[in-house]
Amino acid sequence: MFTIRKYEEKDWAMVWEIMEPVFRAGVTYAYSPDITAAETRKVWIDAPKATFVCEDEANKVIGTYYIKPNQPGLGAHVCNCGYGVDENARGRGAASAMCRHSQETAVQSGFRAMQFNLVVSTNKGAIRLWKKHGFAVIGVLPEAFFHKERGFVDALVMYKQLCNAS
Ligand SMILES: CC(C)(COP(=O)(O)OP(=O)(O)OC[C@H]1O[C@@H](n2cnc3c(N)ncnc32)[C@H](O)[C@@H]1OP(=O)(O)O)[C@@H](O)C(=O)NCCC(=O)NCCS
Fold first, then answer.
1. What pLDDT score does 1 carry?
2. Domain that holds residue 110
3. Which of 64, 90, 91, 107 is deepest in the core (most CB within 10 A)?
4. Probe target for ligand 1 pocket from 53, 92, 100, 129, with the most ligand atoms within 8 Å of CB
5. Is residue 166 part of a domain?
6. pLDDT of 4 over the 60 cut
7. Which atom of ligand 1 is nearest to the CA of 126?
8. How many domains does the chain have?
């Protein structure tokens, strides 16, 4: 149903089209709602270890995710991912497919766990989604996110071990 593949340069316009409204909304990611296309390229394409896109049956790019180490050096075996799905393509399982894919990518890349650092407490759909995929809520960061509409709200740290071998 979905094809998830590595980001290619030709995908940039669609990635920006998907992520611009997400960032402008200021309710799910900490990036400034005024973030530019160039800054988005840096954080979504250039800085991560890899970026992927999700295509639907019509080969339209409807989602994207990145994967990168969550910490340098001695914490680099834990990865961090960010996901976004086109507003018009939500609720069809694209994020679920990308979440599964990202976990496989993580294991293949040698990561042992995945951490989400700032899941906004009002982002109920995302929290439900990550829990469904086995992520645990490690803790609540009181008022750690400045929600564009609601002001200071809590954020969750979510974590999943992908490899339990010592
Ligand atoms: C969160 C997001 C990635 C989900 O993408 P999606 O493709 O719509 O998710 P899926 O279709 O795979 O949804 C899977 C599950 O999550 C639930 N879900 C997703 N969004 C939801 C919402 N807004 N409210 C309630 N449930 C939601 C679905 O009901 C579904 O659960 P089910 O299979 O038990 O019915 C998408 O809404 C998005 O891009 N949001 C903005 C960016 C963002 O929040 N990224 C994550 C930051 S932590």
1. 87
2. 3-161
3. 64
4. 129
5. no
6. yes
7. 1
8. 1
CATH classification at residue 115: 3.40.630.30
Q: Does 107 map to a domain?
A: yes
Q: Kindly report the backbone phi and psi dihedral angles of residue 112, in degrees, each rounded to the nearest multiple of 5, phi listed first.
A: -110, -10
- For the stretch 132-148, pLDDT in tens is 999 999 999 999 999 99
Tokens 């019509």 sit on residue: 58
Please name which of 136, 80, 158 lies closest in space to residue 112, comparing C-alpha atoms: 80
Which two structure tokens, joined as six digits, stand for 150?
Answer: 């609601």
How many A from CA of 95 to the centre of ligand 1? 6
Kindly state whether residue 17 falls inside one of the protein's structural domains.
Answer: yes
Q: Is residue 60 part of a domain?
A: yes
Rounded average pLDDT over 55-76: 98
Q: Tell me what the mean pLDDT of segment 19-39 comes to.
A: 98
CB atoms within 10 A of CB 153: 17
- Asked whether the predicted pLDDT for residue 165 surpasses 70, the reply is no
